Amino acid sequence: MLETHLVKERLTRLLPLLSRELEVLTLGSKIQKEVASSMSKSQRDFFLREQIRAIQRELGESDPATSEINSLREQIENNQLREEAKKIALKELERLQQIPPTTPEYTVSRNYLDWIVNLPWSKSTEDKIDLAAAARILDEQHYGLTRVKDRLLEFLAVIKLKNKLKGPILCLVGPPGVGKTSLGRSVADALGRKFARIALGGMRDDAEIRGHRRTYVGALPGRIIQSLRRVESNNPVILLDEIDKVGSDFRGDPAAALLEVLDPQQNYTFTDNYLDMPFDLSPVLFVTTANWLDPIHPALRDRLEVIELPSYTATEKLQIARRYLVPRQLEEHGLKAKLVKLPDATLKRLIQDHTREAGVRQLEREIAALTRKAARKIVSRHGLLRPLTIGPGELADYLGPAKFETEMAEAITESGVAVGLAWTPVGGDILFIEATRMAGTGKLLLTGSLGEVMKESAQTALTYLRSQSRALKLDFNEFEKQDIHIHVPAGATPKDGPSAGVTIVAALASLLSQRRVRSDVAMTGEISLRGRVLPVGGIKEKVLAASRAGIRHVLLPDQNRKDWVDVPAEVRHKVKAHFVRQISEILPLALRSK
After folding, report:
1. What is the pTM of this model?
2. Counting beta carbons within 10 angstroms of the beta carbon of residue 74, is it exposed (0 to 12), middle (13 to 18) or buried (19 or more)?
3. Which helix H or strand E contains 475, and what residues bound it?
4. Whether the Cβ atoms of residue 580 and residue 525 lie closer than 8 Å to each other
5. Model confidence over 87-112: pLDDT tens digits?
6. Distance CA 420, CA 432 (A)
7. Which of 168, 277, 507, 536 has a beta carbon 3.0–4.6 Å from 305's, enabling a disulfide?
8. Is 362 a member of any domain?
9. Any catalytic annotation for residue 542?
10. Distance set, CA 343 to CA 2, 301, 322, 333 (Å)
11. Which positions ≥6 away from 229 have C-beta within 8 Å?
């Protein structure tokens, strides 16, 4: 600057420097003002709070934060917490006193204490077990299911004798609509305990069972602890519904988390991630439900005592509809029993022509549709409340044509077709297996969305028949120049399981001998290369399906003779069972003479 002689040039250089200094001073002044105002605001708030406290002391009122702390301390002392829980709660309370109420951490700590003091650590309901009353409750709420009710009554009798529950975890397994969930509620009513239901269907996060850790925003205990707090009892009946629908992904495996919950040897120290302390679940009576056992984790299945709920027969469905479904639907649609009448003949036709299921859920929907249409017809009479009786011949007018054929006799008109019996999670069903042959190179073609087990059954059946072709008088001439094609209709539905071996043998034997399979015969069973017929499961459901379809004879493995007693007497009178040990016994019973 000093070396610059011209004043104009010196001022030109000086001006940017002065501008920069001015901006720095302006910014510094602004920051100083903001700091001063912030300090003055906090001082002002502090001063006002002190004034409020002084006024409350003069009036004899306590500080809200202090009163909340005192209330929590009183709850901790009075709620009979376990020693460990009480120690942790008091320690957390002391920590809460040091946290300013305006900070987020205060809310987290306050919620944690709230969960601890409101859990039923020692609060329970007294069991009022009267077996006669329990049997009456089960009979009032469910028709049939004699063996299931007997098992539940035995379970209640053991609880009454021991005065302590540390036994098996019951698992009610059966098709949809047979009353699994309502049976769990009936057990709670019979015991006089609180009831809670937890739906496990689609659950994929194990934190739903074990809870989230408190470090997460919005953390909560698991569904088990939440249910206990909601029912305010440490010994309720908790129904874990649809345990076979539990999934798993990157968030964890809820089935693995249930291992500790459902193990009587471990659940007395169940530790929820949120509580981070053991809670005794041994007084809780857990009842689980499932449609089938295969998807359940093997280690979890080992902890369950399975009680199978069978499919209902047509007579049982009629009684259930008359006693429960019709009165309930009439009430829900604002109708009285004297206004709308559904005779037994109508209900029978409804069961036969419009439903094909193991349970009664679809039947209830059809009854609901009838009552809706009846309500509309009654209202449209402009106040003339005459009784409306719906006869079996009027069902087509109300619900449309029959959805299902009741009889299928004489359906098989050519060789190479046999009727098998299959088990599904929704009950039994019949299965047509078709076979044909054509020019080719000796290959076996299999279609119909078959699984590995059914493919192996088809290979075994063909190999056995080729090896016994002379004894069975089957035509395997020029086999190398022909292909055999086996197809199971409804190709969009995946099919697998060890029940179709016998049916495939019958279809192939029919094709190769040109003798038709009898239309009134259905069969089930697996086969071996030595020609033995091996036992299968689901006999009752399969025989009920055969009866519904009009089948008169069923071929069953001899080792399943013990399962025949489970089939209802009315079905045993309609369907004749033939028990077979060898494949050679099947063909005379199944095939027509030429």
Report:
1. 0.74
2. exposed
3. none
4. yes
5. 888 888 888 888 877 788 888 888 88
6. 6
7. 168
8. yes
9. yes
10. 120, 44, 9, 18
11. 115, 118, 119, 120, 221
Q: What is the pLDDT of residues 273-297, one digit of tens each?
A: 888 888 888 888 889 999 888 888 8
Which residue type occupies 372?
R
495 is catalytic: no
How confident is residue 556, by pLDDT bands cut at 50, 70 and 90? Answer: very high
**Closest CA relative to residue 287, chosen from 269, 309, 310, 304:** 304
Domain containing 260: what range?
A: 131-308
149 pairs with which residues across the strands? Answer: none
The residue annotated as part of the active site, out of 194, 495, 540, 542, is 542
β-strand partners of 240? 198, 288
Measured between alpha carbons, how far is 33 from 35 in angstroms, rounded to an integer?
A: 6
Strand partners, 171: 288, 306
Write out the two tokens for 536. 């299968």
SS3 428: strand
For residue 76, give both structure tokens: 């901790």
The reported pLDDT for the residue numbered 178 is 85
Same domain, 321 and 287: no
How many Cα atoms within 13 Å fall on the side-chain side of residue 200?
A: 26
User: Helix or strand or coil: residue 511?
Assistant: helix
For residues 464 and 385, membership in a common domain is answered with no
Strands (E), 211-291: 237-241, 270-271, 278-279, 285-290
Q: How far apart are CA 453 and CA 457, in angstroms?
A: 6
- Which of the residues 311, 499, 510, 519 is marked catalytic? 499
Beta strands in 342-390 (DSSP E): 388-389
535 within 8 A of 562, measured Cβ to Cβ: no
Is there a single domain that holds both residue 159 and residue 272?
yes
> For residue 392, what are its two tokens?
């079996």
